[in-house]
Amino acid sequence: MAASGSGGSRADNGYGSQQPRRRKGPGALATAYLVIYNVVMTAGWLVIAVGLVRAYLAKGSYHSLYYSIEKPLKFFQTGALLEEYLLIAKYLPGIVPSSVVLTAFQVMSRVFLTWAVTHSVKEVQTEDSVLLFVVAWTITEIIRYSFYTFSLLNHLPYLIKWARYTLFIVLYPMGVSGELLTIYAALPFVRQSGLYSISLPNKYNFSFDYYTFLILVMISYIPIFPQLYFHMLHQRRKVLSHTEEHKKSE
Length: 250
Prior knowledge:
single chain; mainly alpha; 8 helices; 0% strand; globular; lipid biosynthesis; lipid metabolism
């Protein structure tokens, strides 16, 4: 989830989050690799943003803009899985005290929305709710990956830090709303087509109802999203207040 923002935005798992307690970060080689990764991801989401603007100007309408950025969206959103491997398996424990479960949930929910809902259920691709979470994800990720890049380089502009810990207040609910509305719009088509469902009897003696699964996914947002949101609010108070105190002491 970026949430959403999306998020379509995720829990604050920045490589260079400003924390009062110093933690050992990645070495020089790993840092260089992470900088390259974040620069590429920032550029990718900028491509998506430019694609949306160009399509809107060409069409004169915000409807069905998904098709103009479908391929780069799939590529760069799926690329977040590599980020989660780098963070959770390699660097996260020594860099920032973040919830691995919440972080993984948000990343997987976005990849799930991209492939298992929007890609798989063609009928929802024209829904305005898709544009809602795509715009929220795009703004969030441009800011987030820029934040990571400058943090790794130890030259983080205050404006980017402020945007990272402020714009989520609007972007997170915007992304989550788009995600939930898109899943809801997909439900009747999933039920009618039996998409990804497995019925009994079969040799594995196993059944799976994708329609019910999507409903459970929607319900899971109820306990998870508030945790993500309030985690970011807590981080905002900690990081921005720490910055203000540092400025006053100079």
